[in-house]
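Researcher: Re-running this chain for the archive, since the previous output was lost when a drive failed. Same request as before.
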Amino acid sequence: MTGRDEGRQARARLVLRELWRAYGEVAETRSLACAPGCHVCCSDRVLLTTLEAGLLAEELTATGQHDLLALAARAPATPGPACTHNALARACLAGQEPPADPGPGPGDTCPLLRGGLCAAYLARPLACRVMCSLTRCQPGGAASQDPWWVTVDTVFLQLVEQVNAGGGWGPLPRVLASLGQGGGQGLAVCENLPGLPVPPEHQERLSRLLGQVFSRSLNGQPLGLWINRLRV
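Model: Regenerated structure tokens:
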């Protein structure tokens, strides 16, 4: 990795952490039934970027949980989704049909769970942070979600992908396994943000929310400017 690449990676990590913080503050007003120990939705097929996986691996290593990291990376390989969040948005904005998406499969219980709690909670990817339900989930069931929060979650997932533009994205085991191989083999490629295909009834409210998020100060500059600099 060149010095320029290392500098971009450092900036991306900084921006990713700020987006995590921003989402956490936005989600404080969210109504949900989730509570510590509720882990029905915790699967090893959670989708994340290679940038997020790097921070996840660092957290596990720093806390002496190398065994969990190795276990997660050794989970059975599975095909990832047909396209990323931004690729799907690009197709929608162009009026195109997205490719058929079999998804990553149901998967097994996430190997990072210990006693019903996440062993790397502070560094969990955004896909885990957005997974909430208005009602208590049951095995084999689906989360009950407010349409407004589906929109917010999708937009933040698009932004996190933008931060990792040019990097990899896919199911947890495949992404973790790729870290020691250069970080990207066999994964979907993260794309630039093409725009936001937002339902009309959410556009005004979302515009106000994003105005607040993008104006957040990060090292003296607006977060939106940092995100834009990470376009490739």
